[in-house]
Write a structure and sequence with these properties.
The protein has 176 residues and is an alpha/beta fold. Helices cover 41% and strands 15% of the residues. The mean pLDDT is 94.
Length: 176
């Protein structure tokens, strides 16, 4: 399985990014995890620029999404919403179809972060993505300074993250 991991945070020390890195460390050998780390490099969405050919960074983002069998998104919540850079990225692909029927796992690093999660669910459903409930989890890492390796070594966190890839794998194979 090819899994595209997208962190909604641009911070270098982001808990969300560390969670996705831990997910990669724990992924089974038949799963490759590709990190999309250029949210900040996408231009501001403008329908006038959404023409063929699209801006190069947008085309690359769309290519990476198309190449993925599934997508894992971990995002912080800012002011009760999705960070602007992540929303901008989703706006660039809202009409181009890369998320249509694509299995998606939403990984939340804070039980208090419910508004961004709900907003992501609504946006992704509008884009016809398939949010896999068994692969969408919340972990209590608010304020944690654990590294990706430490997250992967924690028995409870590791079990939950392994469950994400297992659920995506089951979903993918149930479709045939």
């Amino acid at each position: 399985m090819k899994l595209l991991a997208i962190s909604g945070s641009l911070r270098e020390a982001s808990t969300n990014t560390r969670l996705l890195r831990a997910l990669a460390l724990l992924a089974p050998s038949d799963t490759s995890v590709d990190f999309y780390a250029d949210l900040g490099g996408l231009p501001h969405f403008n329908p006038d620029l959404d023409i063929d050919p699209a801006p190069a960074s947008v085309s690359l983002f769309r290519d990476r999404l198309r190449a993925a069998d599934a997508i894992a998104i971990s995002s912080p919540e800012y002011a009760h919403g999705v960070p602007g850079t992540l929303k901008n990225a989703l706006d660039w692909v809202a009409g181009s179809g890369e998320f249509v029927e694509k299995p998606v796992a939403l990984i939340n690093a804070s039980p208090r972060s419910i508004h961004a999660y709900e907003s992501l669910v609504e946006t992704l459903r509008t884009m016809s993505a398939t949010i896999v409930p068994e692969a969408s989890i919340t972990l209590p890492l608010l304020g944690s300074q654990l590294s990706a390796a430490q997250i992967a070594e924690d028995p409870l966190l590791a079990e939950a993250l392994r469950g994400v890839t297992a659920a995506l794998f089951r979903h993918q194979h149930a479709l045939g």
